[in-house]
Amino acid sequence: MDSPNTLAFIGGGNMTTALVLGLQREPTPLSVMIAEPSDLRREQLAALFPNARVVADNREAVRHADVVILAVKPQVLPDVARDLRSVLSHQPLIISIAAGITTSRLADWLGENQPIVRAMPNTPALVGSAATGLFATPRVDASGRDLAERVLRSVGLVTWLEDESLLDAVTALSGSGPAYVFLLMEAMEAAGEQLGLKSDDARLLCLQTVFGAAKLALESEDGPARLREKVTSPGGTTQAAIEVLERANFRELMEHAMQAAANRARELGGDET
Q: For 175-268, CATH number?
């Protein structure tokens, strides 16, 4: 694993697309193979990534790979992983991005000696702005951790976790988090239209407001609470709005929503298959 040069992606969906695009921007791009069962999708991937080899057979893709990225739905991963076991004797680095599937279950399916990294990226990977939590089993050496970080950092920020169970919290916070923001944006746009704004104007103002708020938070030394205080003048318009949200138990509602997401991640990890 000192000089890994081939990555095999199992599954040709959006996250694979994002990661391959990110890796192509690297100064020294890695060799890429993509296994995808759909004929139409294989054609699309081959056109999008002419330097990648796109195949239908998962085992063909991983047979000589240094890194195998499991990018399929959690529900189909058990069958996919068991099918790969016989061709993983060379012990490539395994990176799984399947929500909720633990490294112990992956080891059961793939083989106990496989070095495994679990990754929880989110959909902003599609624009190079992902937030990803990573966990490595003890069989992953320093070079394997560096390589996993290189792969995921190609699409955004990464952070390592020493406790695998915390990946359920990562799933609830950043994995599902974009959907919370999109729902907020839906509500803000709709409310803006109810107040008389044209649809296009409401959309533009909402998009820039969310982008600007995130950019300000990223670049400021102040935390979100302090930034909120700075924009909330006593007796002003923002305070009137915030008071409505607080009376509606906005914080408690968000806590319940994220707890539900974390619980579901644990359920996915504990399903009998």
A: 1.10.3730.10
Q: Please report how many Cα atoms fall inside a 13 Å half-sphere around the Cα of residue 56, on the Cβ side.
A: 5
Question: Which class is 6-166 in CATH?
Answer: alpha beta
Q: Measure the CA–CA gap between 93 and 117, rounded to whole angstroms.
A: 8
Give pLDDT tens digits for 153-189.
999 999 999 999 999 999 999 999 999 999 999 999 9
- The residue count for the chain: 273
The rounded distance, in Å, linking the Cα atoms of 68 and 40 is 23
DSSP symbol at 138 = T
pLDDT tens digit sequence for 22-33: 998 887 778 999
Contacts of 141-148 with CB under 8 Å at 24 or more apart are: 141/1, 141/115, 143/1, 143/2, 144/1, 144/93, 144/115, 144/117, 145/117, 147/1, 147/4, 147/67, 147/93, 148/67, 148/93, 148/95, 148/117, 148/119
**What are the domain boundaries of the chain?**
6-166, 175-268
Give the amino acid at 61.
Answer: A
> Comparing C-alpha atoms, which of 14, 12, 34 is closest to residue 178?
14
Phi-psi region of 206 (alpha: psi -120 to 50; beta: other; left: phi over 0): alpha
Cα separation, 29 vs 49, whole angstroms: 12
Q: What share of the chain in percent tops pLDDT 90?
A: 89
For residue 127, give both structure tokens: 């624009």
Burial of residue 61 (number of CB atoms within 10 Å: 0-12, 13-18, 19+)? buried
- The alpha carbon dihedral of 23, 122, 265, 134 has a sign of positive
Q: pTM here?
A: 0.88
State the DSSP H helix or E strand holding residue 137, giving kind and residue range, or none if neither: none
